[in-house]
From TrEMBL:
It catalyses: Hydrolyzes the peptide bond -P2-(S-farnesyl or geranylgeranyl)C-P1'-P2'-P3'-COOH where P1' and P2' are amino acids with aliphatic side chains and P3' is any C-terminal residue. It is a multi-pass membrane protein. The gene is ZMPSTE24. This is CAAX prenyl protease. It comes from Panthera leo. Belongs to the peptidase M48A family. The lineage of its organism: Eukaryota, Metazoa, Chordata, Craniata, Vertebrata. Its EC number is 3.4.24.84.
Length: 475
């Protein structure tokens, strides 16, 4: 009876109170669900202290323990940062942080001689202040993650000076993109008439395509050094493989990712007949800064002991080595190019744009509802930017959660298909060993709770991928 009475009471509230209550309730429901899943996975980290039988041939006990402790630390950090984020978001809503920041933005505009009629100018000031607040409150967490957790487990390569310079640069570059794009989007919504949602969607489509096109050539080099992969066997083999599947490769780059982290990666980008491949130096055995340091250190030890070619030292170097051999790099690229050949990239773009169009259409339907603005403290005005924030971030949050889960399931399916494509290229054996090496280099923990992995993992668990490849190796 008590539950039904409270529900009845909720329905008797004004519409704006119901909306506000529902948004807060859903936010905490999602947070508690995520925390429940994280605790399930954390239990796995705590209780799985020995290498399971099925992983005996894949992972040594030392690496297994390192990855277990790394993931435990990340899990603890994730719990506290998640709790802080949820409390901060709740307090901002409860104490009217959004309308306060909007009024503050109006005050700043007033000092500069811009009145309330300059809504787009006020919106840009609001965005600048909101992103500045977000950057400053997120900075201590980012510092702790980089200089305590990543440092402790041997991944961080940054100095504090490099980190701060990088953070300032990221903030400036973000503003240079965010502010002009937002002002044009708001202008289009203002003048677009009844069909503004179509023009707004087309504008965001063009912007996203332009950003994808220019990112690696003009934005990424502001943060990392990109150098063409030198002529040699690896480059030739990459070109041959690309040609064999009609991938229109124009350039292959190596990015100096080791300046900031020893995590490894590879990706391709570009449209139509202008595709480029980017390899992290940490992925390539012969480029790895860590390997060079290990070799130098081992050489010094050998000279001290007078045993220049000691078998023990060679084994030690091999065991500590980071990155993949050329054949394994090709297998990883075979997997990545599989995403292109199987149309995964295009499918993802189509899904993203269909979702974007639907969201703008629903935004057009809801933007006239004054109670949505009243729910968040905007009683006398309905600014377009605030409407976008309320509808896209709060009202659509249940839909966004469902969509995110569906995309995670689809992503895992795509990963299996890309692995199968690499098999067809005859790369099963090399991809098998590359996945083990990458898991070891990145200290991935190979045991996962089924519910946690189903909800979160965009890639299938390591063991499932290896089992799928194992069958083809035996074939």
């Amino acid at each position: 009876m008590g539950m039904w009475a409270s529900l009845d009471a909720m329905w008797e509230m004004p519409a704006e109170k119901r909306i506000f209550g529902a948004v807060l309730l859903f936010s905490w429901t999602v947070y508690l669900w995520e925390t429940f899943l994280a605790q399930r996975q954390r239990r796995i980290y705590k209780t799985t202290t020995h290498v399971p039988l099925e992983l005996g041939q894949i992972m040594d006990s030392e690496t297994f323990e390192k990855s277990r402790l790394y993931q435990l630390d990340k899990s603890t950090f994730s719990f506290w940062s998640g709790l802080y984020s949820e409390i901060e978001g709740t307090l901002i809503l409860l104490f009217g942080g959004i309308p306060y920041l909007w009024r503050l933005s109006g005050r700043f505009c007033g000092y500069a001689g811009f009145g309330p009629e300059y809504e787009i100018t006020q919106s840009l000031v609001f965005l600048l202040l909101a992103t500045l607040f977000s950057a400053l409150t997120g900075l201590p967490w980012s510092l702790y993650n980089t200089f305590v957790i990543e440092e402790k487990h041997g991944f961080n390569q940054q100095t504090l000076g490099f980190f701060m310079k990088d953070a300032v640069k990221k903030f400036i570059v973000t503003q240079c993109i965010l502010l002009p794009v937002s002002s044009l989007l708001l202008y289009i919504i203002k003048i677009g008439g009844d069909y503004f949602f179509i023009y707004a969607w087309l504008f965001t489509l063009v912007v996203s395509l332009v950003l994808v096109t220019i990112y690696a050539d003009y934005i990424a080099p502001l943060f990392d050094k990109f150098t063409p992969l030198p002529e040699g066997k690896l480059k030739q083999e990459i070109e041959v493989m690309a040609k064999s599947i009609d991938f229109p490769l124009t350039k292959v780059y190596v990015v100096e990712g080791s300046k900031r982290s020893s995590h490894s990666n590879a990706y391709f980008y570009g449209f139509f007949k202008n595709k480029r491949i980017v390899l992290f130096d940490t992925l390539l055995e012969e480029y790895s800064v860590l390997n060079k340091a290990i070799l130098e250190e081992s050489g010094m030890e050998a000279r001290k002991d007078g045993e220049g070619d000691s078998e023990e030292i060679k084994a030690n170097v091999k065991n500590k080595k980071q990155g993949c051999k050329n054949e394994e790099v090709l297998a990883v690229l075979g997997h990545e190019l599989g995403h292109w050949k199987l149309g995964h990239t295009v499918k993802n773009i189509i899904i993203s744009q269909m979702n974007s169009f639907l969201c703008f259409f629903l935004f057009a339907v809801l933007i006239g509802r004054k109670e949505l603005f009243s729910a968040f403290g905007f009683y006398n005005s309905q600014p377009t930017l605030i409407g976008l924030l309320i509808i896209f971030q709060f009202i659509f949050s249940p839909y966004n959660e469902v969509l995110s889960f569906c995309l995670t399931v689809l992503s895992r399916r795509f990963e299996f298909q890309a692995d199968a494509f690499a098999k067809k290229l005859g790369k099963a054996k090399d991809l098998y060993s590359a996945l083990i090496k990458l898991n070891k280099d990145n200290l991935g923990f190979p045991v996962s709770d089924w519910l946690f992995s189903m909800w979160h993992y965009s890639h299938p668990p390591l063991l499932e991928r290896l089992q799928a490849l194992e069958s083809s190796k035996q074939d």
